[in-house]
Amino acid sequence: MENVKDLDPEIYALVKQEEKRQSDKIRLIASENYVSLAVLQTTGSVLTNKYSEGYAGKRYYEGQQIIDQVEQLAILRAKDLFGAEHVNVQPYSGSPANIATYLAFLNPGDTILGMALPHGGHLTHGAQVSISGRYFDAQSYELDAMTGLLNYDSIRKKALAVRPKILIAGHSAYPRILDFARFRAIADEVGALLMVDMAHFAGLVAGGVHPSPVPYADVVTTTTHKSLRGPRGAMILCKAKHAQAIDKAVFPGVQGGPHDNTTAAIAVALKEAASESFKEYAAQIVKNAKILAESLMAKGFTLITNGTDNHLMLVDLTNKNISGKEAAKALDKAGVVVNYNAIPFDKRKPFDPSGIRMGTPALTSRGFKEKEMYLVSDFIEKVIANPNNEMLLQQTAEEIRVLCSKFPAPGLEHLCKAVVQQ
Ligand code: DSN
């Protein structure tokens, strides 16, 4: 980044600090990852200089000889990887992808039914603060109070009562596998379209360790930067009969020109995700999550649903006498980065809820395996028991820095070498 260093030393210094933060810390935010150098380089390529409103062969700007090929390659790879009939790779991110899906099929005031935000749904699944809750009649289903699991009988009952035009499956914080066949049956019974937001677990689907929603859903939306390990972007996968409605809703409905550098980087990430080594990666994400979950439970932590089947877990800290926010702040000081998160039926406020959410895609990308996950759970236990012991937090941060230096993430190898030499 020599040019940035010369031209803008302030931003250069901040990027370097962020590199160090990402290198030195145990990153457990369930939606984050480390992309490969190939994805990073493509994101920073000259493709960022182009405008290409429209779709291949039907653009509103000339000079698309290369961009059309890039976009078609990304689409082809996504179709092959997920077995989708049609794919749109232009949404800027997950929220615009979801909003475009609503625009494709709904009028203002129509009913949608999704998972409630405090129960693990996403903002754009109908939360009142979001456009999805303001412009539509947003109804929600909740988790079972006893088990913390989705209760398909009660989702069905709710769907029969509110008759949504779109039934939404998918989540940001649910640690179990979804039953897409059940969702499909409920959607069919009430005459709804089924939309699955697989943003969190797309990488697990690609790697064959999570059932695919694609055969069941009318529309599947996903970000590309979570477990799928691509750039910040999104895709919409749909049945061929919805192709025109989806494409028109993305452009010109919600967006203008796509970010072609991102599209190319998505294509690169999809090529990586189709490899044998990505299958191993996806399986290791799940193994790591299971070990971390089991190890935390053995230490007396309460996990919503008593564990995990995917890449994430939700810890209820009520019995540890610490709020999610206090825990997340202490953990961050000690070098473990998580987000505080509401738990189902949380008695605390969303800005200082009872839980923390953790996920393993990023650590798995840097090579953490079962053995390291036990160490991670030891760190977490120690910090949660001593959140105000500044000395202990500092010592832990140093131990973690040394551990992390043995597992360099792409593009951060030089920082790890420097720690080893110290
Ligand atoms: N904000 C993302 C997450 O952390 O889950 C969802 O879009």
Task: Describe, in short, the structure shown.
The protein is of the alpha/beta class. Helix content is 46%, strand content 13%.
What does the secondary structure layout of this molecule look like, with pairings?
Layout: H1 2-7, H2 9-24, E1 26-27, H3 37-43, E2 54-55, E3 58-59, H4 67-82, E4 86-88, H5 94-105, E5 111-115, H6 131-134, E6 137-141, H7 152-162, E7 166-170, H8 180-190, E8 193-197, H9 202-206, E9 219-223, E10 234-238, H10 243-254, H11 260-273, H12 276-298, E11 302-303, E12 312-316, H13 324-333, E13 336-337, E14 339-341, E15 355-359, H14 361-365, H15 370-385, H16 390-405, H17 413-421
Parallel strand pairs: 1-13, 5-6, 5-7, 7-8, 8-9
Antiparallel strand pairs: 2-3, 4-10, 9-10, 11-12, 12-15, 14-15
What does this 3D model show about the protein?
The chain has 422 residues and is an alpha/beta fold. It folds into 2 domains: 234 residues, Type I PLP-dependent aspartate aminotransferase-like (Major domain) (Aspartate Aminotransferase, domain 2), CATH 3.40.640.10; 146 residues, Aspartate Aminotransferase, domain 1 (Alpha-Beta Complex). It contains 17 helices and 15 strands. The chain has a 7-stranded mixed beta sheet with strand order 4-10-9-8-7-5-6, sandwiched between helices. A hairpin with a 2-residue loop joins strand 2 and strand 3. Helix 5 packs across helix 10 and helix 12 packs parallel to helix 15. The chain is globular. The protein starts with a helix and ends with a helix. The mean pLDDT is 97. It binds D-serine (DSN).
